[in-house]
Amino acid sequence: MTHPRRPVPGRSGVLARRTVVATVPFALAALLGAAAPASATTTGPSGVGDPYFPLAGNGGYHVAHYGLTLRYDPASRHLDGSAVLTARATRKLTRFDLDFKGLKVTALTVDHVKAAFRRDGQELVITPRKALRKGEEFRVAVTYAGTPQQVTDPDGSADGWITTDDGAFVAGEPQGAMTWFPADNHPKDKASYDFTITVPRGSGAVANGVLLGQRTAHGQTTYRWHQAEPMAAYLATATVGTFQVQQYRTSDGIQVYDAVDPREATAAAPVLKKLPSVLEWESKLFGPYPFRSAGSIVDHAPDVGYALETQGRPLYDSAPDLSTLVHENAHQWFGDSVSLTSWQDIWLNEGFATYTEWLYTEQHGGKTAQQKFDALYARKASDGLWAFPPGDPGSGADIFGTPVYARGAMTLHELRKAVGDTTFLRILRAWATDHRYGHGTTSQFVRLAEEKSGKNLDALFHAWLYSDGKPATS
Ligand code: ARG
Ligand code: ZN
To answer: Which terminus, N or C, of the chain has the lesser number of Cβ atoms within 10 Å?
Structure first.
């Protein structure tokens, strides 16, 4: 498959980009589009200025907490929801947006006062009765209902509230969160979450974080979940189905909750059993596991075709193999705890999670990372692996392409060869530690690698992350 390429700003590479950031921030902001500072405007922009997903996220405020109350009936596919967002205005706001698609909004208040709203594609445009002052904390309550509709991502995959034969596989990367709750739907804005999910007795409802309680009354079961550590909206889930549940604590005190579709149970059991040892191994490499909760949601969703690193509890469309389990849990450090600032930097998630698979295999008696690298490097120049550089996929359609995963991992392998094993692991660990619960960018990673190694690595990263075609290797 050939990847249609579209020139985007910032293709000139790490060096050039770094200069731009350091010297002309306003030019950069303008380049990035909608997020340019607009102190005169009091209407929050409809996106945070991510060129890959221009409408994703919203400007003018940050969300601190989402309180989601959902009631879902798998038989009728009807969802009743209410979302209470606690946010803070970063400028004076006479109007602001949330990302929300499909479901009917039946009531909306800002600070308990009815607010005017309209729908405009994926934007829920809200005009509070009284303008919000810069720095003011405010509360938005949205009540909604209907049949959630999944969205199709630019790469053709289903995303969002994806109906299954016994419930819903609820994923959100990169866009799907807006199909089931109103959000500032960009990884730039992370918040804590509470979920209260009611489903018919016999169904399970699994979200992120720790299970606070579970109660059955009048044929309905309500599950209460709490996600304390900051989370990007795309990592939220509220997966519904028939599940076998297992709960335990690891020796590090992490609360594990596994929910497995009975049809996947036999195949999943031997892999899920390895989770504590995988997390322990990853913690040794990258520093303490970032969350209180861990586990797996193994659904039976044959049409989905991917797994997702939902925070604190990855979501699988079928019984995962060990590599997939290692990959999704590596994302807990790389992607979930350390979040993207821009979707273009997706290799910081996928390249790192893929390289963790390689390291795991290497340290558990399998092929070495060098062997994996060599097998990939042997692919001819016309292979899809070299279709575009991983640091610049070009558009949202390619963020989950092979170059992002495989050439992204190869980039880390080149770095490892350049700086040596000890320094390489020190860099990965520092990355996870320094940006824990926060954000990172590619140029910050390059800077960190240079600091820790004392080497100039611009040529390496330029070749592997930003240059077209097959790079030369050292
Ligand atoms: N981050 C997920 C994984 O690697 C992939 C998500 C794919 N999503 C999509 N809409 N294609 O592990
Ligand atoms: Zn991944």
So the answer is: N
Residue nearest atom 5 in ligand 1 by C-alpha distance: 308
Structural domain range at position 393? 346-466
No. of H helices and E strands in the chain?
Answer: 12, 23
CA atoms within 13 A on the CB side of 187: 29
Q: CB within 6 Å of ligand 1 — which residues?
A: 153, 155, 157, 159, 173, 306-309, 327-328, 350, 400
pLDDT tens, 285-309? 999 999 999 999 999 999 999 999 9
Nearest CA to ligand 1 atom 3: 308
For the record, the structure tokens of 410 come out as 């190869």
Q: How confident is the model at residue 16 (pLDDT cuts 50, 70, 90)?
A: very low
pTM for the model: 0.92
Is there a contact between 295 and 280 (Cβ–Cβ < 8 Å)? Answer: no
Mark whether 112 and 215 lie in a shared domain. yes
Domain co-membership, 362 together with 316: no
Say whether both 312 and 370 belong to one domain.
Answer: no
Q: How far is the CA of 248 from the centre of ligand 1 (A)?
A: 27
Q: Which two tokens stand for residue 56?
A: 């994703």
Over residues 143-156, the pLDDT tens digits come to 999 999 999 999 99
Ligand nearest to the CA of 53: 1
Structural domain contains residue 310 = yes
Cα of 225 vs centre of ligand 2, distance in Å, is: 24
Among residues 303, 197, 305, the alpha carbon closest in space to that of 259 is found at 197
Tell me which ligand sits closest to the C-alpha of residue 353: 2
- Asked whether residue 382 falls in the same domain as residue 315, the answer is no
Query: How far, in Å, CA of 48 to CA of 60, rounded?
Result: 9
Q: Give the CA-trace dihedral at 339, 344, 349, 350, to 10 degrees.
A: 160
User: Domain tally for the chain?
Assistant: 2
CATH of the domain at 415: 1.10.390.10
Atom of ligand 1 nearest to the CA of 405: 4
pLDDT at 40: 56
- Expressed in angstroms and rounded, the spacing between residue 234 Cα and the centre of ligand 1 is 11
How remote is the C-alpha of 293 from its chain's centroid?
A: 17
Query: Which of 270, 296, 330 is the last residue in one of the domains?
Result: 330
List the CATH number of the domain containing 256: 2.60.40.1730
pLDDT in tens, 405-420: 999 999 999 999 999 9
Distance CA 310, CA 290 (A): 13
Closest CA to ligand 1's atom 6: 308
Question: Is residue 175 pLDDT above 60, yes or no?
Answer: yes
Quick one: what percent of the chain has pLDDT higher than 70? 92
Measure 56 CA to ligand 2 centroid, in angstroms.
20
Q: Could you tell me if 212 and 224 are in contact, meaning their C-beta atoms sit under 8 angstroms apart? A: yes
Examine the domain organization and report whether 323 and 383 are in the same domain: no
Regarding whether 414 and 280 lie in a shared domain, the answer is no
